[in-house]
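W.,

You were right to be curious about this one. When I first looked at the sequence I had no strong expectations either way, so I just let the prediction run and decided to look at it fresh. Below is the sequence, 647 residues in total, followed by the output.
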Amino acid sequence: MAGLINIFGTNEHLSSLVEFSNCHVVVDGSNLQHLIGTQNSALSNLPAYEESVANFFKHFLNAGITPHVFFDGPSRSDSYKWGRARERREERLERLSNAPRETKRSVFEIPAPTAVQDIFRDVIYSLGIRSVQVSAKRDYTLEMISHAKYHKAFLVSGNTKFFVEDIPKGFVCIIAGRHQYFESRSQCIMKTFHYKKLTELIGLDKSPNPYALTMWRTALYHRDVFGKFTEQFGKQAHPPQFYPRSRCFWMQSLLSQKCRKVTHLKLLQFFLENKCADAERIVCGQLSPGDRGIAKLFFQQNIAAQLTTPDDVFERIANQIESGSFCDDDLPQWFLRYLTIECKVVPGLMDTLTDRRHYLMALTEDFNRESVNKTTVRLRRIIYGILFSDRKDSGGPVEVLELDREGMELREASLKPIRKLWNPNEQYEGHDVPGLKEMECLPEPERIKLFLLSLGVEESLRQKIDSKEVLYVIAVLRYWSVAAKGVRKQDLLRILLTALLVEKKYSKVSNVFRKPVRLREQEYINLGIDFEPSSVSMLLLGTFAHMHPLAQLQNSTLFGRTLHRLLMQPLGATSDCIETITSEVAFHHIYNLTNRMTEAELEEFVLDLVHEDSRGNFIDTLNLIWDEEARSLGEIILSGFRGDDEL
């Protein structure tokens, strides 16, 4: 529908945020989180993305507008979603394998969407903005429309389907990579589209079919079902009898403007000229017997949805959670609040919980090496053990199906949950992996111990570090150094330097070092690291194979964060923010500067950048993470023992 901007553009209205002062706005978070930032760049800069998201919402808050952010929930037992994810991944891998070497990089190596999603949620949570993860049992679009009607709000999204929805104060369409127009220095001018003006333009009130727009949108959005009918509106020598012959003034005007979607306009004209029942009969008559029932169901559902009643979704969900009538009965209330009102659980985890299938997304990685997701197999098995702990005695063994890359092919693999954790330094049998319902009964020290043990970190590390935030980051980095295949000390040095540069540029406390570490001002300036993604040319030859260690770290932080949240964040709610201390762009430039250095030369290079009075602090942290004895013990812990998925 993006090509129909000509028709939608006729009902646009230039508005400023000042006009919406003291109003509400419903934000399509699942869509918007991918549109903010530099998605067309080769590499991402997560700290800059965090700033962009914060600035975007601060425009609303500064204008006295109250945002309400919605996130789409997983589709329960939705095999179509699983199949679509696999199909897209296979197409990209095939294009990558067939592309010339110099163009391989730009085909499939993209910023990690999972990190973007988590950072987006963290920002709105830190700003005190209300958010909700829509249940799999509810329609995501209808929930937003219902909430917008209740608060008489306007709606912000990049999804063009809202052009034909009746939003009280209008719809603001954010275009990918073009949200900057929303951040005008003066009055923040934005284009607001109103449904009423669109209906007046096409004369919907004079049409025998009051649901013409709804039926038109349904046919366009479900091309796999309605394709045999809609394809007949192309250029044909002998059009069918139901083909619209007349051209209303609005259609004539748009055709003179060379609208790209002429066939779509003719399809709209068809629905305007025929009564609802007649249009449905004609459409279904052109479809195969297998598609007719589905088409009728789509029409009925969308027409019924047009009568959406106003509803305060937040209050309704909160009441359902309190009464125990929301979602799954076997989930504890603390977890329900976590995945709805607080909305802090990774979407992929929700897919696993509801359908026991997990689509592992690709990162910027070296495709000649094993998938970066292999780094966190143990963490994911422990996560599955927590989620399905209550079901281990309910029949057959629990297995979770994962979809991931193996070489240049896709493979489905079944993982069994880990039921018991083991520490070789302890004499007794080990620690049972608790279920969600048991979590509230565990004291905080026990949950910290389970988290560290899951990461292969010995208990003695707690006595060496006073800060819980630093303990969290050090533990994740230690896990990465042990579990990530092929990681060297040079990679750790580049990660630590990246963290220092991010801390310097964005004034962020990295929580990497036990004591403060400062960069020398002049050396920092002379280094000249550019954090802008545009500084990485899209025309570079070869691949970004050198980004593989950072991709392994991002994967470790992602599932480390998920596990930490399932354990009710025993090290604090602000601990799991490690993605914000890394930057793909900065790491890329650092590698290009140092890739010819030996380990000793690289360490000397980094120490020369550090202020003299804090070099000892840097070395202490480096040795704490790259402790050979501790890493050897970590390898033993992470290897587990035979039968840990059965006990």
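Here's what jumped out at me. Residues 212-305 form one domain. And, maybe more interesting for your project: Residues 545 and 624 are 27 Å apart (CA to CA).

Coffee later to discuss?

I.
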